[in-house]
Amino acid sequence: MVLMLPFLLMLSQNAHAIDTEYALKAGFLYNFARYSEWTNSPTTLSRFSLCSPDSNFIDVASTVLKNRAVNNTPITTLTVSLTETDLNQCQVLFITSGTLTLWNNASLNELKNVMIVGETEDFIAQGGQIRFFLSGGKVRFEVSPEKLLSANITMSSKVLRLGRVMEQ
Amino acid sequence: MTPCVIAQEPLSNLDLDLDSLMAMDVQVTSAMKRAQSAFDTASSIYVLTKEQITRSGATSIPEALKMVPGLAVRQLDNNQWAITSRGVASRFSAKLLVMIDGQSFYTPKFAAVYWETLNVPLYDIERIEVIRGQGGLLWGSNANNGVINIITKNSIDTRGLHADISSGSQINHDANLRYGGDLGNKGSFRVYGHVRDGDESDKGIHLEPADFTEQHSAGARFDFTPSDEWSGLVQGNITESTLGQNFRGVIDETNRNVSFSGHLDRTDSRIMARIENRISDDANQMLQTSWLKQSGSQTFLQEDFSSFDVDYQMNFLYGDLKFDWGLNYRYNDILFAESSFVRSDGGYNTLEQYGALVQAQYTLIDNELDVILGAKIEHNDLTGWENQPLARLVWKLQPNQVLWTSISKSVRVPSLIEFNDDFTIDGQRVEEVSPITTGIDMIDKYYIKTYLNGNNNVKSEESVSYELGYRLSQGHWGLDVSLYHTEVSDVLAVEVDANAEQFLPIFALLQQGEIALAMQSLTTTSINFDLVSNAEVTTNGGDIILTWQPSDIFNAELGYSYNTFDDNLAENTFRAIGYDSTSRQLFAKSDIKIFEQHRLYALIRVENSDAYNVDNYTALDLTWQWAFHKNWSAAVIGKNLFAGSHIEYNNTRETYTIPNYIDESVTFKLTAKF
């Protein structure tokens, strides 16, 4: 408890909107991971990596997802550069609105086996498979199952039906 | 499902269940006329969750409200209800603000809510927030005793088909159909319809029950999200009802109440639109406009009411300060045809209200102590400017413990019938009101024409309320305690003006032996019951709610509410609504998932009160649901079990409706979702 106190104070000082929003989005990403299957991945991952080029997001996500696991594989959160070497270790990649330019400028080959999620308009057209949006102050998402499939990921219908499914 | 105590968890303890994440607001400033976190709200709040509503098998809003500890929900017959909190419930005066998505259903004519025609599809309700006491007084008019805000789901969350049909011992059929879908990638919609054909009660008190229901409703909601910064919604509903009822009124020279069976035709329409804008990460604004139209027609009463509302609110954070302000305007159009027993003094066919609210929450000690100051200032056409200030303190003793306290003043503006109308009421006998009796039965037992007169000397009731609350969330347990003391002044009372001098010429005639002339003179006399604002009422009470959720498949709740009302009346007056009384309620709920496909929901209510002129009763509601297919489920719903035939409300002096016995009922329900 005492150990947690400075940590809580730190959170409360900047526990403003953006933290809550990122915390919720980190929670959604965790659920996307839990309810999806990476069909082409080695069956024994030693860790499940959630990555973003945005270190602010990773700070929040590491708090929210501390001690969480996806199918018994512990989650790690990583701040990454948008290079193929870095991204090859990721299962989920989140491109925040602040890092969209980096994403659009990165010249990457098509990433397989990575779930790519964004929060900006047209992100699915820009190489993503899932995009968050806000409706009435709450987080909702759009998803393209085909694009997920071409990255060798299938998402459970339980989650798909909560999202707005984008047809090709 | 932890209905009442949801701790504002630090981010590390965020509930990562997808349902919870979808229900959370991204910004603290986005709470418009609703509670942000029930746990650290400085008022006595109870959140009725969508899970509770569906699992209980409730078939109407009032039935769902029966689950809320501290709400007095009394059923008059199979379609009429009296509902309030921290007060004595009455059919026509509730001091309770009822809203659907922030749209107020306050009618300045009666200050009543027509619960029987308030159609909201229960399966598309997100949650119902109930504030007991004055905690929501900034939210709108008539919120003195509490607020009920019914929040419906965003249509993006109701895409697909829902169909259900129920039938049972008191419902011939009740069917719902909804279809929802996307509108491109910027919006979504749902359309729905509802029909209900309800039976009469089994047993009446004086008359054969006539309380059948025939009701058709249709509605739609559209949500638009052009960008993350802007969103909008438009929704509307129309409900047509034919409701049977037994009622009474004075319509002839006997000057006595005559009982009737008849029916009431009503059409209730509502439409609202809201635009929300996220100005920045720390600021939001909202503009909402709504229109309400209610028309009712029955043998002796015709009414037409419509209102138009515009509300603007802005909420922002500035350092340690959270600031909310808003403006509101309401236009009411009231048409009430003269009838043999209600007459209007005239002059108030339209009423306007306008005002402003401001609330500031300042963090004195980070994450520990917040102070809240607010006020609502509003002008109305009957009593002019009124102001309602409040001050609150929220002290987070520990991350899992909150202590709050509040002092507030609220104003209850008289309804138009109290201010401007006269009623002919059940006649008084000469011997009851005259200083001397004659010994001649024909005279002494003659019923004199008697009026209840609303008048413009009626003032606004003012109440000052002191509240204290404590919440604890510990492991699987939650505790929510609230206590209050409220003093109300200028309370409406009825003063009897027997006008004794009017009998003197009659006694003179009698002394001259002119009995026939004396009788004839009697027919020209009248007694006046005048509404006056000179009573004082002190109310004390509190609510304790204990929740226990040891696992995902079981949760339970125990609630106890106590309210006592103590009148201080001037000589020769009596209370218009309620009287010295004490109400106690005990609630026990359990919700258990048995095997994979079955669920059992039980609610026991013990209603112990001397406020309604009825016996105490204990009722069990029991619902068993069986999800026998991924798209289909069946339910058996038992209501008022073991309570026997009982009367829940018998303050017949206050109502025009004649209540019936309430009986146990069994309903079968089949639900499909695709």
TrEMBL record, chain A:
Residues 1-17 form the signal peptide. It holds the Pfam family DUF4154. InterPro entries: YfiR/HmsC-like. Keywords: Signal. It comes from the Bacteria. This is YfiR family protein. It comes from Shewanella inventionis. The lineage of its organism: Bacteria, Pseudomonadati, Pseudomonadota, Gammaproteobacteria, Alteromonadales.
UniProtKB/TrEMBL annotation, chain B:
InterPro entries: Beta-barrel_TonB, Beta-barrel_TonB_sf, Plug_dom, Plug_dom_sf, TonB-dep_rcpt-like. Residues 176-641 form the TonB-dependent receptor-like beta-barrel domain. The keyword Transmembrane applies. The keyword Transmembrane applies. Residues 39-147 form the TonB-dependent receptor plug domain. Belongs to the TonB-dependent receptor family. This is TonB-dependent receptor. The lineage of its organism: Bacteria, Pseudomonadati, Pseudomonadota, Gammaproteobacteria, Alteromonadales.
